[in-house]
Design goal:
The complex is a heterodimer of chains A (379) and B (261). Chain A has 15 helices and no strands. By secondary structure, chain A is mainly α. The radius of gyration of chain A is 24 Å and the shape is globular. Chain B contains 9 helices and 12 strands. Chain B folds into 2 domains: 156 residues, P-loop containing nucleotide triphosphate hydrolases (Rossmann fold); 70 residues, no CATH class. In chain B, strands 6-7-8-3-9-10 form a 6-stranded mixed sheet, sandwiched between helices. In chain B, strands 2-1-4-5 form a 4-stranded antiparallel sheet, with helices on one face. Chain B has a two-stranded antiparallel sheet with strand order 11-12. The chains are: A mainly alpha (379), B alpha/beta (261). The interface between A and B is large, with 61 and 71 residues.
């Protein structure tokens, strides 16, 4: 072992300690520390770091690109793969160009963005709350957005201008986040109280949605209902640049802060002695993540299970290290949501099923399988 | 050198530590003993800057702990809590890497130096053989080694352990305490540790602090502190104190009710 120099800057405290220049722990003599033979304890379950990196940073982006192109190609009108790619670069017939570039492309971009944003933020919520059940749903953010959008539809804001529904959904989501935050910060930060208040707030909002529906006109309820089940087609293209910017920048920041979130999972005491201001860090990350989620759900409605399921799948593959897990989950979302959206368009074409229905069905089945497998393994 | 001056501390309104006043010399292996709820863990928290005392001050090498920056503090004092909830599957290496955070940049991206340090401490703590395994599938003794590796990866001169040997069998317990002893004797680290096992405290520590209901009853070397009168009064039971024939350190045995004289 070649030594490494002491990297501490010799802060004020180190005054009367000698600064060791070389290796601070030279190799020990055999048997100095151990009374047992540790070398016999090798077990399975080792995943090589290189393999994980290969999966995350090579295979998944390639898959994402393939899914992106496939989603452009698939749809009610038959377009060949080659034509779809050509149209992407602005070559081809007028009608194909219109379909690809003006109808399908924005929609697929939205699906990719929302998938990445929801999956990454679900992963971050699970990390900072140290609870594998946390996601935009359980934290009440989706509930708040649903309430905001429903209120927008029921009070007829949708007829006034296109921008009101996403905005009222966004406002609803932010109100929910602030309510959850205020409730759970009553006695200092605590992950259980945060999830509990999220569930409470989301129940309150969902009953308020029901209240709104019970007193309003049928046609309003129908359009609100379509929105509530999550749908890529109801959003407006004019909002796309703003949402994409917020979500992509936010997700990049989240991907970079994976190592900090690792420290947060250690718990307050240890994280604080590592020189990390726990409360402040959690606050910033929580608000950033909520912003990303709110931007996603305010555009494409309530899409369940993406934020919950992607991190779970990826955790099985890449492990719990958030610096890898968050980008991996984001990429998984980029792959999963466009696929689901394509299914929703093509499965019963020309009728379109809400994408939220598809993600929830797949997610539900996935969790049943996961639970059954875990039970079998534990017996 | 840790100087504790007239500390009163506790949680919200309840005062747990009452007028604690003592000092721990540089390079000593100090053990804090006392009953459950005597304030041992609270004292540790106050020591490493986690719990601001109501009144009083703590000086480490002459600098007030609660007046200095967290960054410098994190390079001077490291703390190993009793247990760490790990719901998520980290590998041992990734977990130990967390201990290097005081030396990393804002996004905490590890450098080559950090990887070298992690390898070294894993080897030191005897945890290198399971470096690639997941932390949540280790046994208690192995987990404790990993926690220790993480704590010493922080490269501090003062290391504080909160009950590092609870729930461990006697072999693992001796392993862990021997690691601490090597850290203390060979590398000159100041070690502060809370222990429930009085025998281990007498055998491994060279300075003991006996606490009783939030205040210090006695301090000094084990032979002085572990006398039957103090132990019986603090622990409210009858004990016999003998000398270990091999190490000539004191050890303490409880006596059953019907055999008391």
């Amino acid at each position: 072992m070649e030594g490494w120099t002491r990297s501490g800057r010799g802060g004020a405290f180190n005054g009367d300690y000698p600064v060791r220049k070389r290796c601070f722990l030279p190799p020990l003599q055999k048997g100095e520390l151990t009374s047992k033979v540790w070398h016999q304890q090798k077990k399975k379950g080792i995943i090589l770091n290189k393999k994980i990196k290969f999966i995350v940073f090579f295979i998944m982006p390639v898959l994402a690109v393939l899914v992106f192109i496939f989603s452009l190609k698939a749809g009610a009108k038959h377009i060949t793969l080659f034509d779809a790619i050509r149209a992407l670069f602005g070559i081809g017939e007028e009608s194909v160009l219109t379909i690809i570039r003006q109808i399908r492309l924005p929609r697929v971009i939205m699906a990719v963005t929302a998938g990445a944003g929801l999956a990454a933020s679900g992963c971050v919520f699970q990390g900072i709350l140290k609870n594998p059940l946390a996601d935009p749903f359980t934290l009440g953010i989706s509930g708040g957005a649903a309430f905001g959008a429903s209120a927008g539809f029921v009070f007829g804001l949708a007829a006034l201008s296109w921008i009101f529904i996403p905005f009222s959904a966004f406002a609803g989501a932010l109100i929910a986040v602030l309510a959850v935050y205020a409730l759970s910060m009553q006695r200092g930060f605590n992950s259980n109280s945060m999830i509990l208040s999220g569930v409470i707030i989301s129940y309150i909002f969902s009953s308020m949605v029901m209240l709104l529906f019970s007193v309003s006109k049928t046609n309003h309820i129908y359009s609100a209902f379509v929105w509530l089940m999550g749908n890529m087609s109801v959003f407006d293209e004019r909002l796309l640049p703003a949402v994409v910017t917020i979500v992509i920048i936010g997700t990049l920041i989240l991907c970079l802060s994976g190592n900090i979130i690792n420290a947060v999972t250690l718990g307050g005491q240890k994280a604080n002695t590592l020189g990390i201001n726990m409360e402040k860090t959690v606050k910033i990350i929580f608000l950033l993540t909520s912003l990303i989620t709110a931007a996603c759900v305010s555009c494409c409605g309530v899409i369940g299970f993406v934020g919950l399921m992607m991190p779970h799948i990826m955790r099985k593959i890449v492990g719990g290290n958030n610096s890898v897990l968050i980008p991996a989950s984001a990429l998984a979302g980029c792959i999963f949501l466009p696929l689901c959206d394509t299914l929703s368009r093509t499965l019963f074409a020309p009728i379109e099923i809400p994408v939220g229905v598809i993600t929830s069905i797949i997610g539900g089945v996935f969790f049943i399988v996961l639970m059954m497998r875990q039970n079998r393994n534990s017996i | 050198m840790i100087e504790i001056k007239n500390i009163h501390a506790g949680y919200s309104k309840k005062e747990i530590l009452k007028n604690i006043d003592c000092s721990i010399a540089k390079g000593s292996f100090a053990g804090i003993i006392g009953r459950n709820g005597a304030g041992k863990s609270t004292l540790l928290k106050v020591l490493c800057g986690l719990l601001k005392p109501f009144s009083g001050q703590i000086f480490i090498n002459g600098h007030d702990v609660y007046a200095s920056s967290k960054k410098i503090l994190s390079k001077t004092v490291s703390f190993m809590p009793q247990n760490i909830e790990t719901n998520f599957p980290f590998t041992v290496e990734e977990f130990v890497m967390l201990g290097r955070y005081p030396y990393m940049n804002i996004f905490k991206i590890p450098s080559q130096k950090d990887y070298a340090a992690v390898n070294e401490v894993l080897k030191f703590a005897g945890a290198d053989v399971f470096a690639k395994r997941y932390i949540n599938e280790l046994s208690g003794g192995e987990k404790q080694r990993v926690l220790i590796a993480q704590t010493i990866a922080q490269e501090t001169d003062i290391i504080i352990f909160d009950e590092p040997t609870s729930h461990l069998d006697i072999g693992s317990q001796a392993d862990i305490l021997n690691i601490l002893r090597v850290l203390n004797k060979k590398y000159g680290k100041t070690i502060v540790v809370t222990l429930h096992d009085l025998n281990a405290a007498g055998e491994f520590c060279d300075f003991l602090i006996l606490m009783e209901e939030g205040s210090i009853r006695n301090t000094g070397h084990p032979e002085k502190v572990l006398n039957y009168k103090d132990i019986e009064q603090v622990y409210k039971t009858t004990v016999v104190v003998k000398t270990n024939p091999m190490s000539s350190k004191p050890y303490v045995i409880a006596v059953t009710k019907e055999n008391r004289v």
